[in-house]
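Okay, any thoughts on this one?
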Amino acid sequence: MNVGVTATGGNGQTYTIASGDTLWAIAQKFYGDGNHYKKIYEANKAIIGSNPDHIQVGQQIVIP
């Protein structure tokens, strides 16, 4: 497993936001295409808030 990634009981994994991360970069890492950042954002809107550009170091998000 990668640093910051843990398995969840559901269909996805959890990922802990690190310094310098963007949803685009996280989507690129997990899906091979940054355009899938919207999928990650929609699954984590309650955690991230209304602006997908304002993720915080230490937040734990689900990678659907």
User: Anything to note?
Assistant: The mean pLDDT is 90. The chain has one domain: 5-63. The helical segments are 23-31, 37-43, 45-48. The first helix runs from residue 23 to 31.
